[in-house]
Write a structure and sequence with these properties.
Elements: E1 4-7, H1 11-23, E2 28-31, H2 34-41, E3 48-52, H3 60-69, E4 78-82, H4 87-95, E5 100-103, H5 108-123, E6 130-133, E7 138-141, E8 146-149, E9 152-154, H6 158-169, E10 175-176, H7 177-185, H8 193-207, E11 214-217, E12 221-224
Parallel strand pairs: 1-2, 1-3, 3-4, 4-5
Antiparallel strand pairs: 6-7, 7-8, 8-9, 10-12, 11-12
Length: 228
Amino acid sequence: MNPVVIVDDEPDIVELVVINLERAGFAAKGFTEPGEFLKFLANHSPALAILDLMLPGIDGFDICKRMKQDSRLSSVPVIMLTAKNEVNDKILGLELGADDYITKPFSPLELVARVKSVLRRNAGEKKGKVMEIGGGALTIDLEKYCAVAGGQKIELTATEFRILELLASKKEHVFSREAILDHLWGSEKIVVDRTIDVHVKHLRAKLGAAGGFIKSVRGIGYKIEAGS
């Protein structure tokens, strides 16, 4: 079982989170030095990473960015953990591919609940399901959690994948930015249209020519036109 990992420079917080994760049945591992965590990532892939924003030397944003740019780690869910509670910090974390955000001080039980929620919504009940767009020009494998376009496997962040999955679930249907935010973060969403626009921009770029299936609907949101 791959561990849920907590990276925080406060040993008491790391110990507290690890204990509560293990009580909830998770394998858990803690790091107080970001460099040690990066060494761990060289040979391991965690089930989920909880990253403190304010780390010495390498901050949580930078670690998240490195993970999302690594094809082996890009689908690992990330929860940002920080004392900051400013909207701009949350937006930046989400734009980098973080799946959730919790601020200090926090309840260990709430954090465990967030971990369960993120893992559940990223996994879903998707076994054996493949979605096709444009006669197979773009395929989305919901079990392997990947997309294939032009015969090439496309590495997407968890957030990008879930946006693509939502749009493909109802071809030609226009999803508002609000609906996409609800799908991604539910009651924990931060309603900022720019966040969705940035994710869709990155998604289109990664899909290449297949990105043309994703259409903007001015003033509303996005849809997939399968016949384009």
